[in-house]
C-alpha cells in the first residue's frame, strides 16, 4: 500500500514585482510518498482553487530534471535537500508526516520576483547572448569527423555542458554570483577545438555582461556547487578565471575583439 | 482544400538538389526588409529562427517558457540518427530513407523522407561545429549506438542528454542572433491565433503571460514550430506546458490537420504510481540496447511479484518470457516502438504484468552487467539509472527496472507540402507540429533529426523561396494596423473573457484529467469503432460541461497559470474529437494506430493499402459542424509496399 503524509506548507506569496510579499501557510493531507514535489504543489493548487483562491504560481515544465524551468528554494536549499536533484525530480518520500516545508523563490538581486515563486532569469540569457556560442553558420560546417577530439576533452566539455541554466547557483550564493553558470559555458566552449577561435572574445564578453547584469563576484564559498542539480564542479570557475586572466592579458597588449 | 504536395519532378535522389536550384532567391541586401515570425523555440523553431536571421531576415521568435533554452526538445535522451555510415556497417541515405518509411508503416511521403535522410549528415556536421559534445571514442572520432527499427548503428548521442545538447546548440546560435538584434525574442508569450490577410498568413496574436497583454505581430511569413499534442491524453511524457493551441488555432483559420490519430505510445516509461501523477517519465529507448524486456510466464508469479512477495531476481530464466526476443528474433529488444508497446500491453492484459498496478513489465540489465561489468553500463546509461532511482526509489543495478508504455510523440500534425508550407500560404510548419516525415510511427532518434532538418536545412530555403515569390515590393507591407489584426485580436479577447466569466465549480486541470482519461481508455493503444464512437460523444458532452462549469480563479491581466491551462484544455477538447474522428475513419491498423478490428491472427497491425494509403486531412467547417475529410494519396515509386516484419 502506498504511504501518505500530512504536511504544512509555508510558501512565499507575492502578487507581482512591486508587492512586498509574505509567507502563507497551508495544510495538505494525504500526499503520496511516490508523488513528486511539484505534484504536491499541484494538489495544493487544486485545493486553493476549490476554495476560490489563486494557486501558488511556480515555474515548471519538463518535470524530468532537464529543462531548468523549476526554481524554488525548499527549506532553505535551492531545489531542496537531495543533492544533484531538481525540484521536479524531488519526491515526497524524502519528507515525513507532519513536516513543515518552507518554499521560497530564488532570492537574488538580478532575479526579481514576478509572482510567488516565479522569478525573472533573463540575465542568464543575456550572458549567453554576449558570447556563449560558437559561430558556425548553418551550411558552413566541415565533416563532423574531420577534426578528432580526444575523448577526455569531449567528456569534459559534456560535463560542463550539462548545466540546465536553472540559476540555483546564483540563488545559493551569498553574493548572487553567476560564476558557476558562466564558467560552465566558458569551459564547455573554450575547451573544444571548434570554440578556440572565439575563446578570448567569448570569455571577456560573457564576464563583462555577467558583471553588468548585477551578479556578484565569486569568493570561493562553494554553495553553488552544492546546490547545483547537475553537480557542476567548482573547477569550472577556476577554468573561467584562468581563461579570463589570459584573455585580459592578451587584450591589454592587443584588443581581442 | 488544395492538397498539392508540390513534390519536385525528377529522380528521388535529385529532387531536393534540383528544387533548391529552382527556388526563388532573395538578394542579401533585400532580406533585411522582411520580417519572419517563428513560434516556438525548440529544435525546429530555434534552428529556423537562428538560420533565417543568419541569412539576414528579421525574425521575431516566441516561446511560452521563460527562455528559449527550455523547449521540450531538451528532454530527448537517446540520440539523433544520421546516415553517416561511420561504422562501416552498411548504412546509406537510401537505407535511412527505407528504414524510416518502413518504420512509419508506409504512411509517410517518400520525397520528404528522402530529403530528411539526405540532410541528416549535414545536421551532425552542423552540430559538431556548434560545439555539441557528442560522445566520442578514444581515437577522437564520433561514437554511435543502435536504436529501434534499424540494424545499423547510426545514432549519435551525448550521454543520455542528446536533446539537451542539440537544443543548447540551436539556442546558442539563436542567442547570438538575439544579441546582434536580428532576432527579437519574446519569452513567456503564448500564440493564441494566426492572422490572415488576403488568404496569406501575415501575423499572430499573442498573450504576454506575465502582464496578460494581448499584442499583434505582423510578418511576411509565419513559421509554426510548437511541438506535438501528446498532452491531449493528460498523462504523457511531454512537458507540462506542451499544447496544441497554436496548431489548432491555425486549423480553425484554414490549415489542414493531417493524420491526428497517429500517436506514438513509447514502450519504456516509468509506470504510473497513482492518482496524483502529473506526468510520465520516459526511459530512453537506448536502454534496450542492453536491457532485456520480460514478463513472468506465469500469472501466479506475476501476482507474487506485484504483492512484493517475490523478488524478480529470484525468477529463474525458464520462468521468464523475454517476449520481444521470442516474437521478433531478428530485432529482439530493439523492435520498433509501436510493436514493443503493444507486446507489453498484451502481456499485462494477460494478467502477467508487474508493478503495483499490474501495468508494468521488466527491463532487466542483469545479463548486461554480468557481460560488460557495472562500470560499462554506468558509462552508457548512468544518468538514466539515477533518474529511475530518483523517481521510483529502486536501484536498477540491483533490481530490474519496471516500464510501461506511455504517450510520447505525435506523428500527426498540420498538413504541409514538400516546402513545409501548410494549406494557408505563408504559414510554414516545422518539427513535431507538422505531419510530414514519420508516417504512422516514428523510429527512435528520428525526432531530433527531423526537428533540426526542418530548422537548419529546409525552412531557411523554403521560407526564402516563398518570400522571393511574393517579391520585394511586398516586403513589410502588411502591418499590425491592418483591420484583419483588430478582428482576430477581438476574437482572442472575447474568448479569454468567456473563459474568465463562466463562474463554474470545476478547475481546468480537472477537465483536462477527464479528457485525458477518455482519450487513453478509448483512443489509446488499442481502438475500436465502439470505443471511438463513445469517445466522440463523451468528449462533446464534456466540452459542453467545460463551457458551463469551468472555474478560472485570478484575473486575465497578470500571470495566471489557471487561465493558461483553461485555454489549452479548451483547444484540446476540440482537437481530441478530431483525433477520435480520424481514428474512426481509418479502418485499418498501421504503426501507432491500432484498430482491434484490423489485426492479423498473431495480433500484428493489419494495413489496408488499397483503401487507406492516403494522408487524412481535416478541414475546419464551423464550431458545431463535423470537419471535412480530404485525402492526399500516397504514391510509392521507390519503395515497394510490404507487410512490416521485424521477425
From TrEMBL, chain B:
Ranges of residues in domain Fumarate reductase/succinate dehydrogenase flavoprotein-like C-terminal: 512-646
Per its UniProt record, the required cofactor names are: FAD
Per the database entry, which stretches of residues form a coiled coil?
Answer: none
**What region holds the FAD-dependent oxidoreductase 2 FAD-binding domain?**
36-448
For this UniProt record, give its keywords in alphabetical order, as a comma-separated list.
Flavoprotein, Oxidoreductase
Matches recorded under Pfam families: FAD_binding_2, Succ_DH_flav_C
Q: Does the keyword Flavoprotein apply?
A: yes
Concerning PANTHER family, the annotation shows:
SUCCINATE DEHYDROGENASE 2 FLAVOPROTEIN SUBUNIT, SUCCINATE DEHYDROGENASE FLAVOPROTEIN SUBUNIT
**Name used for this protein in its record:** Fumarate reductase/succinate dehydrogenase flavoprotein subunit
Q: What is the lineage of its organism?
A: Bacteria, Pseudomonadati, Verrucomicrobiota, Opitutia, Puniceicoccales
Amino acid at each position: 500500500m502506498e504511504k501518505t503524509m500530512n504536511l504544512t506548507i509555508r510558501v512565499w506569496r507575492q502578487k507581482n514585482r512591486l508587492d512586498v510579499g509574505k509567507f502563507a501557510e497551508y495544510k495538505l493531507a494525504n500526499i503520496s510518498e511516490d508523488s513528486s514535489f511539484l505534484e504536491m504543489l499541484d494538489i495544493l493548487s487544486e485545493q486553493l482553487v476549490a476554495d476560490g483562491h489563486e494557486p501558488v504560481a511556480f515555474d515548471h515544465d519538463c518535470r524530468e530534471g532537464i529543462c531548468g524551468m523549476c526554481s524554488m528554494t525548499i527549506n532553505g536549499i535551492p531545489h531542496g535537500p537531495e543533492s544533484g536533484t531538481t525540484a521536479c525530480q524531488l519526491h515526497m518520500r524524502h519528507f515525513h508526516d507532519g513536516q513543515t516545508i518552507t518554499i521560497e523563490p530564488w532570492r537574488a538581486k538580478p532575479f526579481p520576483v514576478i509572482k510567488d515563486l516565479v522569478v525573472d532569469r533573463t540575465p542568464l540569457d543575456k550572458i549567453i547572448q554576449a558570447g556563449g556560442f560558437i559561430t558556425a553558420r548553418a551550411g558552413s560546417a566541415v565533416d563532423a569527423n574531420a577534426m578528432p577530439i580526444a575523448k577526455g576533452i569531449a567528456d569534459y566539455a559534456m560535463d560542463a555542458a550539462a548545466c540546465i541554466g536553472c540559476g540555483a547557483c546564483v540563488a545559493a550564493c551569498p553574493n548572487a554570483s553567476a560564476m558557476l553558470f558562466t564558467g560552465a559555458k566558458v569551459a564547455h566552449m573554450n575547451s573544444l577545438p571548434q570554440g578556440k577561435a572565439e575563446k578570448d572574445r567569448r570569455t571577456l564578453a560573457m564576464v563583462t555582461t555577467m558583471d553588468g547584469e548585477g551578479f556578484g563576484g565569486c569568493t570561493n564559498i562553494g554553495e553553488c556547487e552544492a546546490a547545483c542539480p547537475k553537480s557542476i564542479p567548482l573547477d569550472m570557475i577556476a577554468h573561467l578565471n584562468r581563461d579570463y586572466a589570459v584573455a585580459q592579458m592578451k587584450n591589454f597588449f592587443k584588443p581581442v575583439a | 482544400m488544395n492538397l498539392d504536395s508540390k513534390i519536385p519532378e525528377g529522380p528521388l535522389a535529385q529532387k531536393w538538389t534540383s528544387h533548391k536550384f529552382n527556388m526563388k532567391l532573395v538578394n542579401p541586401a533585400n532580406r533585411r526588409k522582411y520580417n519572419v515570425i517563428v513560434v516556438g523555440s525548440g529544435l525546429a523553431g530555434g534552428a529556423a529562427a537562428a538560420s533565417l536571421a543568419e541569412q539576414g531576415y528579421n525574425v521575431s521568435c516566441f516561446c511560452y517558457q521563460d527562455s528559449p533554452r527550455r523547449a521540450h526538445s531538451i528532454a530527448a535522451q537517446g540520440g539523433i540518427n544520421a546516415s553517416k555510415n561511420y561504422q562501416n556497417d552498411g548504412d546509406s541515405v537510401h537505407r535511412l530513407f527505407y528504414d524510416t518509411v518502413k518504420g512509419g508503416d508506409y504512411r509517410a511521403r517518400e520525397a520528404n523522407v528522402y530529403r530528411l535522410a539526405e540532410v541528416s549528415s549535414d545536421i551532425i556536421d552542423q552540430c559538431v561545429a556548434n560545439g555539441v559534445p557528442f560522445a566520442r571514442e578514444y581515437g577522437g572520432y564520433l561514437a554511435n549506438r543502435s536504436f529501434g527499427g534499424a540494424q545499423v548503428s547510426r545514432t549519435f548521442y551525448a550521454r543520455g542528454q542528446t536533446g539537451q545538447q542539440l537544443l543548447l546548440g540551436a539556442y546558442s546560435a539563436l542567442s547570438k542572433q538575439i544579441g546582434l538584434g536580428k532576432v527579437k525574442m519574446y519569452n513567456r508569450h503564448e500564440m493564441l491565433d494566426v492572422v490572415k490577410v488576403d488568404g496569406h498568413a501575415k501575423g499572430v496574436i499573442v498573450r504576454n503571460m506575465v502582464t496578460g497583454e494581448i499584442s499583434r505581430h505582423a510578418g511576411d511569413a509565419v513559421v509554426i514550430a510548437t511541438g506535438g499534442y501528446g498532452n491531449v491524453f493528460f498523462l504523457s511524457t511531454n512537458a507540462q506546458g506542451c499544447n496544441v493551441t497554436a496548431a489548432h488555432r491555425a486549423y480553425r483559420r484554414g490549415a489542414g490537420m493531417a493524420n491526428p490519430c497517429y500517436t506514438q505510445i513509447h514502450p519504456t516509461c516509468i509506470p504510473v504510481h497513482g492518482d496524483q501523477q502529473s506526468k510520465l517519465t520516459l526511459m530512453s529507448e537506448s536502454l534496450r540496447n542492453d536491457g532485456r524486456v520480460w514478463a513472468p510466464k506465469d500469472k501466479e508469479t506475476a501476482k507474487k511479484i506485484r504483492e512484493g512477495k517475490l523478488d524478480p531476481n529470484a525468477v529463474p530464466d525458464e520462468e521468464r518470457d523475454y517476449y520481444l526476443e521470442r516474437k521478433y528474433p531478428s530485432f529482439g529488444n530493439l523492435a520498433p516502438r509501436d510493436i514493443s508497446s503493444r507486446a507489453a500491453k498484451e502481456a499485462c492484459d494477460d494478467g502477467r504484468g508487474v508493478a503495483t498496478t499490474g501495468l508494468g513489465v521488466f527491463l532487466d540489465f542483469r545479463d548486461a552487467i554480468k557481460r560488460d561489468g557495472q562500470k560499462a553500463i554506468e558509462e552508457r546509461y548512468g544518468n538514466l539509472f539515477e533518474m529511475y532511482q530518483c523517481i521510483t526509489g529502486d536501484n536498477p543495478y540491483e533490481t530490474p527496472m519496471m516500464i510501461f508504455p506511455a504517450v510520447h510523440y505525435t506523428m500527426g500534425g498540420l498538413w504541409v507540402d514538400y516546402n513545409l508550407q501548410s494549406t494557408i500560404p505563408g504559414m510554414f510548419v516545422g518539427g513535431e507540429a507538422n505531419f510530414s516525415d514519420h508516417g504512422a510511427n516514428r523510429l527512435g532518434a528520428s525526432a531530433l533529426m527531423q526537428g533540426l532538418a526542418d530548422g537548419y536545412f529546409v525552412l531557411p530555403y523554403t521560407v526564402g523561396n516563398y518570400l522571393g515569390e511574393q517579391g520585394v515590393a511586398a516586403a513589410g507591407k502588411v502591418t499590425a494596423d491592418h483591420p484583419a489584426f483588430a478582428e482576430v485580436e477581438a476574437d482572442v479577447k472575447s474568448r479569454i473573457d468567456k473563459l474568465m466569466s463562466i463562474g463554474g465549480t470545476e478547475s481546468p486541470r480537472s477537465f483536462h484529467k477527464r479528457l485525458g482519461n477518455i482519450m487513453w481508455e478509448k483512443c489509446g493503444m488499442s481502438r475500436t469503432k465502439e470505443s471511438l464512437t463513445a469517445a466522440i460523444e463523451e468528449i462533446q458532452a464534456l466540452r459542453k460541461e467545460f463551457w458551463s462549469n469551468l472555474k478560472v480563479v485570478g484575473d486575465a491581466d497578470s500571470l495566471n497559470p489557471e487561465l493558461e491551462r483553461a485555454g489549452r484544455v479548451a483547444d484540446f477538447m476540440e482537437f481530441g474529437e478530431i483525433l477520435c474522428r480520424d481514428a474512426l475513419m481509418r479502418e485499418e491498423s498501421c504503426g501507432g494506430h491500432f484498430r482491434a478490428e484490423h489485426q492479423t491472427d498473431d495480433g500484428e497491425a493489419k494495413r489496408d493499402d488499397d483503401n487507406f494509403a492516403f494522408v487524412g486531412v481535416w478541414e475546419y467547417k464551423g464550431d458545431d459542424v463535423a470537419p471535412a475529410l480530404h485525402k492526399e494519396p500516397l504514391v510509392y515509386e521507390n519503395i515497394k509496399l510490404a507487410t512490416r516484419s521485424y521477425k
